[in-house]
Amino acid sequence: MSAPNIEELHDDCLYYIFQFLSTEDRIIFAQVCKRFRQFFINQCGSKYREYILEKYSTRIELIQFCTCREMVTSLTIDLDHFNTARCFRNYGCIASENCFGILCQTLAGMIGLEHLVVKQLVFLITPIVKPFDQILAAVRHLPKLKRLEMHAINDCSLDHLSQLRHLENLQILVPKIPPTTLVKSCKSNGNLSSLHLGYACVQKNLRDIVPYCKNLEVLKFGMSANSSEYLPLAMLPKLRELSYFGIRRSGSFEPLLSALAAKSQLTHLSIDGGSLTLKETSQLVRIQSLRHCKCFCSSTECVEMLAKLTNLEELCLSMSCSLDISISLLTIIASCKNLKLLRIAMGKVNTRVLDDAIRLENAKANENTKSPIVLEVDK
């Protein structure tokens, strides 16, 4: 028996018709009725689960992406797509304000969105006002959005950031964010477990977020400040991984490391900027819970002290001078029985001596069914 109208055709028939349609006709097909739109999503939606809206994305791609909005779980938006400086290139969005408006309406309907990245990595010329804020306003009610990344080379408005409620992983790699905005965001996202802030993104006000980050386990940041500004971070009750990058004042981490040693819950520590002083190193090696460590040293004495971290599994070491640290590393190899990776990113070493020592330790490891040590030396 034939179907009374095309909407009642069997899916096999629709599939047969669909194969003969051009991309433009498929878009029109999806706009006929709810069933045709769902059929379009079933056929094309999988390619938009993880989508990148880049500067070269076409209008047709954007329309198809918007049609399949419920399927999107991960989205990256490159705001250069809306750059209207077309005199130097032959790509970009012509009607940027209209397209951006459509994008924001689409974002509000992405009920499955879990991961959102918004980036502006070039100087942007566009009539769109506060694009980051408009995007944040559009996604503020999405229940599954757990991970948000914001990248910008220029100052940008993030006033609506605090309206999000379900974030667990937050990256804010922008030149500057008002301290009150960051505090409100941490307060409104009680399940935040990972926070990554760009260098100098927050100036000496990081202590203010501590009362609202009871579930924070991973913190990555960089800011040059007095030791008193770093110390409150030790009060984070669930902190497991701490990473610092960029310039810092010599000796400024001593109080923080001392407080972290008293709690002994940190498993990952990275201090990628500024060599550790002897006093800082003496406090660092008291953190016996450490499994992964990355740091700069300025003397063989500091390197030898790291051998006290007997539970280390990975050590990435950089030297700020040309001293040979081979003998000091032998002490670490002999003392850290769980060591799996020893990486010398910057430093003078005798690889033959280290290879012999590691070969001996690996032989012992084979007898005890332990993982062998891997040596990596950057040249």
Q: What is the terminal-to-terminal distance?
A: 76 Å
In the sheet with the most strands, the strands line up as 1-2-3-4-5-6-7-8-9-10-11-12-13
Q: How many helical elements?
A: 13
Order of helices and strands: HHHEHEHEHEEHEEHEHEHEHEHEHE
Low-confidence stretches: none
Structural account:
The protein has 379 residues and is an alpha/beta fold. The protein folds into three domains: 1-46, Up-down Bundle (Monooxygenase), CATH 1.20.1280; 49-223, Leucine-rich repeat, LRR (right-handed beta-alpha superhelix); 247-379, Ribonuclease Inhibitor (Leucine-rich repeat, LRR (right-handed beta-alpha superhelix), Alpha-Beta Horseshoe), CATH 3.80.10.10. Helices cover 32% and strands 17% of the residues. The chain has helices at 11-18, 23-30, 34-44, 59-67, 96-108, 131-139, 179-188, 227-230, 254-263, 278-284, 300-305, 326-335, 351-367; strands at 50-53, 74-78, 115-120, 147-152, 169-173, 194-197, 218-221, 241-245, 268-272, 292-297, 314-319, 341-346, 374-377. Strand 8 (241-245), helix 9 (254-263) and strand 9 form a beta-alpha-beta unit. The longest helix has 17 residues, at 351-367. Residues 3-51 form the F-box domain. It holds the Pfam family F-box. This is F-box domain-containing protein. InterPro entries: F-box-like_dom_sf (IPR036047), F-box_dom (IPR001810), LRR_dom_sf (IPR032675).
